[in-house]
Description:
The structure holds 2 protein chains of 2 kinds.
Chain A: E1 5-6, H1 11-14, H2 32-37, E2 51-54, E3 60-63
Antiparallel strand pairs in A: 1-3, 2-3
Chain B: H1 8-12, E1 32-35, E2 55-59, H2 63-71, E3 80-87, E4 90-100, E5 112-120, H3 121-125, E6 130-134, H4 142-155, H5 173-183, E7 192-193, H6 198-207, E8 213-214, E9 226-231, H7 236-252, E10 263-266, E11 269-272, H8 274-288, H9 296-311
Antiparallel strand pairs in B: 1-9, 2-3, 2-6, 3-4, 4-5, 6-9, 7-8, 10-11
Helix pairs in contact in B: 4-5, 7-8, 7-9, 8-9
Amino acid sequence: MRSTKSRRSRGPKLIAFAFALAGAPGCISVPEDVRADLAAPDGRQPNNYGRLVENAEGLLEVVPDRPTIPAHPPEGT
Amino acid sequence: MSRGRLRAPLVWALLAGVAGCASAGRVGGRTHFLKTGSAEEPGTYLGLPLRSGQILLAEAGNPYSLFFSLATRDYYDFTHAAVLVMEGGEPFVYEMTGEYKPGFDDRVTDGIEGGCRRTPLLEYARAYLYLEVFDPPAGVDGEAVARWAQEQYRRGVPFDPYFDASEHERLFCTEFVALALEAGGAPPVKPVPLRRHPSLQRLLGWLGVARESGLPAGLLADPARSVAALGQLPSLGAARGYFAAKRELHRRFTRDQRLGNVFALDGAQLSLRRQLVVFLEGAVNLIHEADDDPDAGEIDRRVQELAARLFGAAPEHAALEEQSPKEGS
């Protein structure tokens, strides 16, 4: 399945999404279980949101990564 | 006819630092007037049919707003709400907002301070991707709604960073609007259930935020009462594509998903994973550029198709598991 390509050079602009509530770390310590929940997809656990991989041309590409739901909801929902 | 493609810096650079009930950054570019007055609703301010006591629902488009969209069991558009008040012919927005002040707190929410803020509408609009103006429900006294909002501003009611709708000493954005409507004669707005989703509940628990139910801004929306729309997105199609994308992200957040599939943690900061940014941008462009004015069902179909192409479509077993009454946290 093909996917949209994203040039590596656009990366820094695309990740300018600071979480406003956490504008500065201060003394906040994120609990281990929350930190584990927020770990990057590892290719082993279910993931309905794809992963970014670098293709042969050096471009970042979004690819499926163990999705668990259908493309369309079942009839009648 | 092509309407021109939205590039990432143009659209997404608007989003940094803007949050639903958290203090909005002033990051705007050009504000587009997407829906203005009509013969039935003539314009009162720059072509917009504005009156005191109308409700503003807004979409910031940042990780914070996406997080709260994922939290409710059912999907709702919009992540922020406010009250519009006309003062001397000029529209002002009254809203509850909070801002994080770094300190010696154990968790982010403990360091959020804020209250009721009053902002000129056009300045307010520059901080949001999209906002829509709704008349209050029939029979509700708009002037009474406006007076109540002004009174909270005068008395300096504090912001509630824990989103607890059961007490009103501190208020969050949608609670503020719901109570303003009540002051105008509307019935109370009933909270809706949040997901009993393990990963999401763990984060809500750490933040100390209400975990059972919430008041999503979209609960206050009624398309029949929509009178105006404006914001940084350049077309209603772009806004519909954006909301369809959020709906699809909500649909995909099944019980087996981790928050890390959607967000990244950098130090103590949360950001949206880049693959989701690619998807959101693609969905906005897809509908913004459509020449055939697709209806809501067709928009959903096209956006789901885009998601399937990017994220994959596979075995059918977990889609509706989330809403099972038997599930636990």
